[in-house]
Structures are given as structure tokens and as C-alpha cells.
Amino acid sequence: xxxxxxxxxxxxxxxxxxxxxxxxxxxxxxxxxxxxxxxxxxxxxxxxxxxxxxxxxxxxxxxxxxxxxxxxxxxxxxxxxxxxxxxxxxxxxxxxxxxxxxxxxxxxxxxxxxxxxxxxxxxxxxxxxxxxxxxxxxxxxxxxxxxxxx
Length: 150
Prior knowledge:
mainly alpha, 6 helices, 2 domains
């Protein structure tokens, strides 16, 4: 009220009221965004619990795309355990090329696994079940080649 009695005070009061309304709207908008993000995280956690069951991964419950991811990540892990780690800056194709000289007998399988992973990871179209089966077969041959390095 004191602000309105001053010269030009009613204009200042209107601006102040407008600013308060804008901040209140922004605050409620931010709260909605935060809550939406939390809901997404909860849903993601719940779906990952479904995949892993009681702490174990059930391959039968994975869709073909997830199976390709699984076998590629197993390949990365096992190659690191065999003394051929992938650096964080290497792309999948760069890593495959680096291993091609070290494991020439597994070269075609490494290229097939890498190509399937890149396709599964970076394209929106569905991964066919037979493609996941081929990836599993390639992974098994790569695993045997890596075991020979130990």
C-alpha cells in the first residue's frame, strides 16, 4: 500500500505483482519438470529390476536389441580381462580395428559383433531375433579366441 502512495508507485506495484506471478509460475513449472524426471528414473529402475530379476540377468527375458548389447558388453569386459582393454575414447569400430591385428582369427566375428552393436545402438528399427542369434554365435567364437590368449 505504501508503494502505491508514492509518485509512480502504482506502476511499480503492477510490475512487482507481475514479477511475483512470473516467479510463481516458473517455480511450479520447475517442480513439474523435476517430478517428471523422478518418475522417469523410477520407471527405468523398475524395468532394469525386471530384467535382472533377483540380481541375475535372464537372457531369455531380453529382447533381441538387449541381447546384442549384452554380448557386446561381455566382449568388452572379457577382452579387458584378457589384457586388451578398450579405452574410453575408442569408438566400437576403432576398438574392433585395434583387435583385428591382435586376434586375426576372430577378426570377422569381431567385425560382425561390432556392426550388430552399432546397428542396435544407433538405429531405431527393431533388431531381428535371428540377428541376436548370429551375434551370440560370433561372441562364443570370440570368447574362445580370447581364452587362448590367457
